């Protein structure tokens, strides 16, 4: 069984999607996106600067567009038995699996990026990658700290990203290092994604999600909040709303997909970060990047 997986923020690079534009179907979708967004995001993706591409209102739609347009150009070759996306990638997965239209997916991603940006500006906050500790140890230490700090991204065994206030992250990093973490590395991000500090963004995005039509996908979508497969549109909506303040359970998602029969993981979008994370869960499973013949 083939699982298609879609990357999140951090996978972007200048030049992404440029080769896709040579396909008429892709070019039309990029131009449609430029119109919806109100500026030529394709120009920034293909030949902008790293600084331009790093802006949240550019990064999130850029990764989404690369992933979704690649899936659309694959055409009949895109035959997923199951899909999942890491954080932002969940929106790409839903469009690729026909649960969301291209236009609605893009509009939600723009709304998400803007809401997250506002939440970041309202309260200084950050994230940190914790390497070499068991998940339950990280969870226990975070729970004991008297400041906002929570597990946010369960990326693979031995790699958990925590998220919270600057004070909470600093305290947690010190305690987790004492507890034997190989590294506690603060990340260069603008805010505490997938934590309670994203509540204002969640409220803002909830209205947009509730107003958007979601159809039954062509295959099960494994969602971040609980790593389980969904096909019911109302459940998918509810999980999408919870996603901004809930953890990304990627380790568990990959484990569940393997348990449900996945024999091959195909990454759709820029980079190959997710393939590396899959390999940390199972060395034997086959991984590849989606490519146009």
From TrEMBL:
<dbReference type="InterPro" id="IPR024925">
    <property type="entry name" value="Malonyl_CoA-ACP_transAc"/>
</dbReference>
<dbReference type="InterPro" id="IPR014043">
    <property type="entry name" value="Acyl_transferase_dom"/>
</dbReference>
<protein>
    <recommendedName>
        <fullName>Malonyl CoA-acyl carrier protein transacylase</fullName>
        <ecNumber>2.3.1.39</ecNumber>
    </recommendedName>
</protein>
<dbReference type="InterPro" id="IPR016035">
    <property type="entry name" value="Acyl_Trfase/lysoPLipase"/>
</dbReference>
<feature type="domain" description="Malonyl-CoA:ACP transacylase (MAT)">
    <location>
        <begin position="5"/>
        <end position="292"/>
    </location>
</feature>
<dbReference type="InterPro" id="IPR004410">
    <property type="entry name" value="Malonyl_CoA-ACP_transAc_FabD"/>
</dbReference>
<dbReference type="InterPro" id="IPR052760">
    <property type="entry name" value="Mitochondrial_malonyltrans"/>
</dbReference>
<comment type="similarity">
    <text>Belongs to the fabD family.</text>
</comment>
<dbReference type="Pfam" id="PF00698">
    <property type="entry name" value="Acyl_transf_1"/>
</dbReference>
<dbReference type="InterPro" id="IPR016036">
    <property type="entry name" value="Malonyl_transacylase_ACP-bd"/>
</dbReference>
<feature type="active site">
    <location>
        <position position="87"/>
    </location>
</feature>
<feature type="active site">
    <location>
        <position position="194"/>
    </location>
</feature>
<keyword id="KW-0808">Transferase</keyword>
<keyword id="KW-0012">Acyltransferase</keyword>
<dbReference type="GO" id="GO:0004314">
    <property type="term" value="F:[acyl-carrier-protein] S-malonyltransferase activity"/>
</dbReference>
<dbReference type="InterPro" id="IPR001227">
    <property type="entry name" value="Ac_transferase_dom_sf"/>
</dbReference>
């Amino acid at each position: 069984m083939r699982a298609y997986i879609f990357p999140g923020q951090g996978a972007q690079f200048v030049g992404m999607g440029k080769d896709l534009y040579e396909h008429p179907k892709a070019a039309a979708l990029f131009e449609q996106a430029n119109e919806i967004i109100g500026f030529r995001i394709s120009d920034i993706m293909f030949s902008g600067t790293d600084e331009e591409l790093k802006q949240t209102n550019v990064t999130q739609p850029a990764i989404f567009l690369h992933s979704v347009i690649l899936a659309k150009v694959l055409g009949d070759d895109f035959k997923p038995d199951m899909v999942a996306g890491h954080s932002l990638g969940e929106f790409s997965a839903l469009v690729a699996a026909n649960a969301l239209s291209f236009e609605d997916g893009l509009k939600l991603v723009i709304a998400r990026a803007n809401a997250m940006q506002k939440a970041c500006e309202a309260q200084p906050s950050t994230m940190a990658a914790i390497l070499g500790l068991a998940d339950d140890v990280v969870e226990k230490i975070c729970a004991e700290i008297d400041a906002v700090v929570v597990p946010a991204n369960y990326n693979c065994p031995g790699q958990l990203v925590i998220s919270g206030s600057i004070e909470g992250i600093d305290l947690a990093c010190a305690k987790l290092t004492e507890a034997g973490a190989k590294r506690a590395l603060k990340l260069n991000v603008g805010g505490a994604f997938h934590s309670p500090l994203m509540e204002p963004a969640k409220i803002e995005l909830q209205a947009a999600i509730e107003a958007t039509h979601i159809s039954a996908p062509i295959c099960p979508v494994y969602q971040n909040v609980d790593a389980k497969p969904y096909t019911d549109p109302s459940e998918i909506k509810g999980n999408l709303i919870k996603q901004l303040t809930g953890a990304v359970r990627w380790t568990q998602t990959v484990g569940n997909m393997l348990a449900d029969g996945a024999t091959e993981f195909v990454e759709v979008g820029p980079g190959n970060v997710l393939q590396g994370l899959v390999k940390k869960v199972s060395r034997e499973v086959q991984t590849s990047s989606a490519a146009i013949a």
